[in-house]
## 1
Amino acid sequence: MTTPAERAAFLRAEIERHNHAYYVLDAPTIPDAEYDKLFRELQELEAAHPELATPDSPTQRVGGAPLPAFRQVAHAVPMLSLNNAFTAEEAEAFDRRCREALGVDDVDYACEPKFDGLAITLRYEHGLFVLGATRGDGFTGEDVTQNLRTVRNIPLRLTGSDVPAQLEVRGEVLMPRREFEKLNERQRAAGEKEFVNPRNAAAGSLRQLDPKITAQRPLRFFAYGVADASVFHPALTLHSALMDRLASWGIPVAAERAVVRGAAGLLAYYEKIAAARRTLSYDIDGVVYKVNRLADQEKLGYVSRAPRFAIAHKFPAEEATTTVLAIEVQVGRTGALTPVARLAPVFVGGVTVTNATLHNEDEVRRKDVRVGDTVIVRRAGDVIPEVVAVVPEKRRPGSAEFRLPARCPVCGSAVEKPEDEAIARCTGGLYCPAQRKQALMHFASRRALDIEGLGEKLVDQLVDAGLVETAADLYRLDLATLAGLERMGEKSARNLLAAIEKSKQTTLARFIYALGIRNVGEATAKDLARHFGSLEALLAADEAALQAVPEVGPVVASSIVRFFAEPHNREVIAALRAAGVSWEEGTPAVPSRAPLAGKTFVLTGTLPTLTREEAKALIEAAGGKVAGSVSKKTDYVVAGAEAGAKLAKAQELGIAILDENGLRRLIAS
Ligand code: 9MJ
């Protein structure tokens, strides 16, 4: 017979083992439901036998009663900060100082990512987690033990051998980026305030007086060292070995640690981690270099509040604060109105940023960005800069909520925003110079008519000067007009005219794509060209005929019909052709691509590889029709396993019967 005490001990060990596998090793060992079952059994056992409850029980992770306030904790060993290096030169200078102070030619460094979270310290006594505190001012922090117990990858009891009697682990609490996004989705759904970034979310979660709330926040911990390495003396002589030892006791450490030699090693590590930054599950703001030999660390000692043996080599900040000078509204090729924040120039993500997208009106509302606001701007990697959030304390009195104008800021046409869409659009079409400019840029782009040299600046000039309204006007430009433009020499003008002339010889697919029909991208343009073979055939097609093109659905078909129904668009097309834009007309692809044209099929039974839907799509793509029941009009019945009445009927009527292979052969024929 197992006693309740034995069962509880067994359950605790099992649950912590699964916890470790899931949260530290990232390799789950049992399904969630089974884990939950073990967990509930332990909870019930502890409720029935309160004397069995222990401070290291995984049931402690769900959070106890709220606190009135956090208790202050004095750090026996101060929690230092790190000095920063922002350039390769500063990292090299760090290496030089270490070499000189130690009187050696080469130094080995332990390198680790710099976690962008909150520094905390964890005290273990005889392997049991007894106290956790924030860094505070470095000398005194706050007792957040009950919150830290809810952080799933912090071991409540250390496992493995040679666990010291006293151990204080230092590290950072953070929130993985993916979990942060999910948390914000939940906040949004619940109508709660969203967090600005994972760091703020982690900070807010850790400083909750109600640990039940913290327990629901996906926090993680990573260790970067210990308060006092001398407890390991003389068994351990290297920082890297110390980190391995922590890992052996179940303490999470970064997988990206490395030992390198010299300044070249440091910089290579920096580059490697900088390149891998996006692939890490959590945010980092740089890397940390530490002299690896613990005896050397001691020799180097400290300057004021930072170790001399370590330095943080920071990445360019991805976020910065600045002010919104104006909110402008840009009009895109399809008329989409995009609010853009004009910013006081700010250096972020390695470049100076003066604009940031606000995406759309709903987004501006949600973030409540106003002119004059102080905002946090983010530029991560090559992503276009965006306004992350407003700093509300810095809002000036009298600021007004942003509203999208009711009329297009460029042409004055009405702005329309369908109920179920986030995007508002100018209804001016090609009457709108903004849309016209974008349409011209698209027309001239490389994959369309490919007019080299016709860039944004030139298109602006041509449209603003009233020289060009539609693409057809491009073919009426002459040398004198072009050479008369600002910043345009005779040579450039000649080159441009040659490029325009060259563009006249094109293909039908490029021409269709160049028209800029909504929902018609390059691939669809090619499909249309292949299917119809000539522009006349395309112009004549109604929605049904268009939908016969594989990949063309009702939305695309309707866009095309509406585009060609516009007399203005037909005029432009006629003018383009009159100007000499031409292509080789092909034969419509319909016959060759529709081997099943005019044939009706009925599907029955289970085919070996195709689902019913796939078989239907295959037949329709080849021009055939699929009917639901067998009649005299049926040409073929495609029968699979367990075909029933339909097959019998087909046999009765003498209709041709195919299996899946037979169908494929017919299509290929
Ligand atoms: C962070 N934030 O990742 C240290 N840190 O070492 C790492 N911080 C540190 N080390 C001594 N990796 C003081 C702070």
Note: The pocket of 9MJ is lined by residues 80, 82, 112, 114-115, 172, 224-225, 288, 310 (CB under 6 Å).
## 2
Amino acid sequence: MNPRLRLQPEAIGVGMTSQRVRDRLIERLRETGIRDERVLNAIRTVPRHLFVDEALATRAYEDTALPIGHGQTISQPWVVARMTEALFEDGHEPKRVLEIGTGSGYQASVLAALGLEVHTVERIGDLLRVARKRFRSLGLNVRSKHDDGRIGWPENGPYDGIVVTAGAPALVDALTEQLAPGGVLVAPVGAANAQQLLMLRKEADGTISRRDLGAVVFVPLLSGTIG
Ligand code: SAH
């Protein structure tokens, strides 16, 4: 656990955002196949209700994606858990990770709560500004950049893990190139309304192995930046 994560009173939650409701989500994630206790613990710790509009806070611990404005969504908790878990599979111990698509900042915060050095890139300035406030108020140390994430963030790489949280028809070579030897990339790949979650590992000799983690639906990975 990241010792920097000191929870403020509003992060503890009441009623539909209480610890009991949050524990129910953890049970559900366990039942649906999430095994890594560190990941479950990070999800238990990060207050998802602070990453959505107040009007949606009561739904924050349901296992569903929710709108965050600008036509974007905060991913379903199961998907966040599965992508995060993939980074730790087969005894892999990542240190430095890159996320493409900061959105609400929730996935980045879960990664930071695991003690990882997190870098995240978002193309919509308005979303990034709000996410940065959340990182600050939760005391999480996340480095972020307003840019088109399809170019990655080569200056700070290579990365032990890369998580792409927007769907594209094909894998982005620039991102695979920024993986360190032994590093894992997780990305939704496929058509706009249905993608496969792919897990790629760059072996020590540079060859790439891949696994399909199942069907998912993400908002699209788009080019360029907006305000
Ligand atoms: N990880 C987010 C989920 C975000 S939804 C969370 O935890 O809330 C996907 C995000 O990817 C959106 O915010 C969208 O604006 C962003 N995105 C799409 N294409 C992008 C690109 N090329 N570079 C950076 N961000 C991108």
Note: Residues 72-75, 100-101, 103-104, 106-107, 121-124, 127, 148-150, 165-166, 219, 221-222 surround S-adenosyl-L-homocysteine (CB under 6 Å).
